[in-house]
Amino acid sequence: MNLKRHLKRFIRGWLPKEPNLPRHKLKTAEVKARISKPKPRWWRPFWIILVIATIALGVANTLFLNVSLQKTTIGLIGTVLCIGFAYYIRVRPSIRVNRALYIVLGITPTGLILLILWTVSIGRLVTDTIGALPSLLIGSALCFGIGAFMGDWIGKKRNYLLPMSP
């Protein structure tokens, strides 16, 4: 019984809060009201400490674990860019960025799964007919396009609000 309640709460977190909203109308006043909540006192130091710890671990990686400076620098740049993107999403959320994020999150898993299914099933017939490269391009465009539309559709249903957003 407890498992059933837990699953219901988990699934409800991904569904829209108000299912009877009119289509193509976003509640921007509600979004702005959510954004204006004061942040906790530890919020700014958290991001600063996260960046400093990342850089310190990168330096320690180079000095003590004999990792090349080039690999460490590339890893640090990627990590700091991801931290900056996460900071932007959490601190300055906007409908445009949230929509782009839903589209990317729709493309990545859904598009890859559909591309694998395309390659295993229909892709072989298309490859025999028109060749490998055109088949890969058609399959990628079709599968990633479907993934993008699915991500945008899910985002519309949720009013482009991220789960557990402030």
Helices and strands, with pairings:
Blueprint: H1 2-12, H2 28-35, H3 43-64, H4 69-91, H5 95-120, H6 122-130, H7 132-157
What does this protein structure show overall?
The protein is an all-alpha fold and 166 residues long. The protein has two domains: 27-92; 95-166, no CATH class. Helices cover 75% and strands 0% of the residues. The chain contains seven helices and no strands. The chain has helices at 2-12, 28-35, 43-64, 69-91, 95-120, 122-130, 132-157. The radius of gyration is 21 Å and the shape is extended. The two termini are 31 Å apart.
Q: What's the number of structural domains?
A: 2
Average the pLDDT over all residues and give the rounded result: 76
Strand content: under 5%
Poorly predicted ranges (pLDDT <50, ≥5 residues)?
Answer: none
Q: What percent of residues adopt helix (DSSP H or I)?
A: over 70%
Radius of gyration: 21 Å
Per DSSP E runs of 2 or more residues, the count of β-strands stands at 0
Task: Write down the overall geometry.
Answer: extended
Q: Termini distance?
A: 31 Å
Main beta-sheet annotation: none
By secondary-structure content and strand pairing, the structural class works out as: mainly alpha
Count of DSSP H/I helices: 7
Task: Tell me the series of helices and strands, N- to C-terminal.
Answer: HHHHHHH
